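Suppose a colleague, Dr. K., hands you the sequence of a protein chain of 198 amino acids and asks what its three-dimensional shape might be. Before reaching for any lab equipment, you can write down a predicted structure in token form. Begin with the sequence itself:
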Amino acid sequence: MSTIKTTRTLRIVAVSGGLQRPSKSAALAEHLLDLIADEIPCQQRLIEIGEIAPQLAGAVLRSHLPTAVQQTLAAVEQADVLVVATPVFRGAYTGLFKHFFDFIDQSALIDKPVLLAATGGSERHALVIDHQLRPLFSFFQARTLPLGVYATDKDFVNYRLEDDALIARAYLAVQRALPLIDLSLQPCTASSESLVEA
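The predicted structure, expressed as tokens, is then:
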């Protein structure tokens, strides 16, 4: 049962850095989106970098991007909660995943809750979440949520999560995230006087 009290439907946006379709990163992102939706009334949107890659790759300024891609960037900036998932490519997130976030306004993600996830060929790349993704979103001053979710190829069957341990970790990651999402959505009501001792 959700502990989050809200008077509006939240906007939850996932960004998958996968460049192929179907994509294990997109499948993981969708799984996390669904877990959040089970707990919070929300509008869900999945953005797949592979779908917009042809319009994204050649641009050097945001103003050079097609309107549809600019609207995609705006959806990320206006989201209440982000889920990001990327395949590991040569020890880091994909280049187009980073290129996409290079166009995001650097103040747009301040204090925004971000659930981090990644996929790779083996467990050897599991630290990509802490060594690559957390620093990227720390730059944006986002609130990266406590547990990341890392999946390997063997955790999927036909692009669906099938490993019980991973499914349990994904569930735990969302449950651990809920109180922090709730906190980030509460308006600050304390006055400056109440913060200063006489």
